[in-house]
Amino acid sequence: MNKDSKIFVAGHRGMVGSAIVRELQKQGYTNIITRTHSELDLTDQVAVNHFFSTEKPEYVFLAAAKVGGIMANSKAPADFMYQNMMLEMNTIHAAWKSGVKKLLFLGSSCIYPRLAPQPMPESCLLTSSLEPTNEAYALAKISGLKYCEYLNRQYGTDFISVMPTNLYGPNDNYHPENSHVLPALIRRFHEAKISGAEAVTCWGDGSPLREFLYVDDLANLCVFLMNNYSGNETVNAGTGKEITIKDLTRLVADIVGYKGKIEWDTSKPNGTPRKLLDVSKAASLGWTYSTELPEGIQLAYQDFCFTQTPPIEATSE
Fold first, then answer.
1. Would you call 137 a catalytic residue per the annotation?
2. Rounded to an integer, what distance in angstroms lies between the CA atom of residue 131 and that of residue 103?
3. Are 212 and 167 contacting, i.e. CB atoms less than 8 angstroms apart?
4. Identified catalytic residue from 29, 112, 137, 168
5. Pairwise CA distance, residues 277 & 236, whole Å
């Protein structure tokens, strides 16, 4: 990409999209195009086709998605599948039809089988069944990356896919029911600290292992890959390190400053037992992450506090 290339970041208000915009600006890219949902509904094929035919972006980062945690995915699988498939298919198809030079599609590590080999290499995709609690979302993401692959093979496009592990950081979703595990824990422990709650109850038994990547590190990788990688196989984005949910909850509690008890509701689902990405491919291309988990959680907590009304000081006790 040239510094004045016309770059469309789809989903720029979300955690990933906003991080990509920050990274592009940091690296000196000056011609970034964005649209809010009210300005461009990516599930509307006619509107998307019109946008691409009139704006003619040269490069596309497809970071738009309907996302949520275990509860949200379990309650509304049809919504997650339909909205994600519609917005990604419309955008990828219009990018091809309008002659976009390169597109980067962002998926999720949940595309890999529930019991995939650990750490999970890119090659394990579609080798066995998915995790039931987020199957609909995973199927939509698999469809998007496969459509990119098929367009490359059939029409010679240069569309690539990136599969990030669990993300966190500025502009995350801290909704009490629809957020992912780390932002949910930040909110829960912060509210428990403020209210003086004696205990906080978390789902499952705390045994699952998870990997977390700070979103600005992902954004850096996305820009790096747009400039340095072409290929049909997706590229994993992660740290190669994992932590149990139990240890994560204690780490978040310590950073937030919550001193009470942590209890576990084993009647609630754990989700996938382990999700660690094999990040050797990204490393072989010359990239590695830079933000360690304690530092990233502190930055995320500061962001959470800043987004409250009125803003509060994010210092642990």
1. yes
2. 28
3. yes
4. 137
5. 7
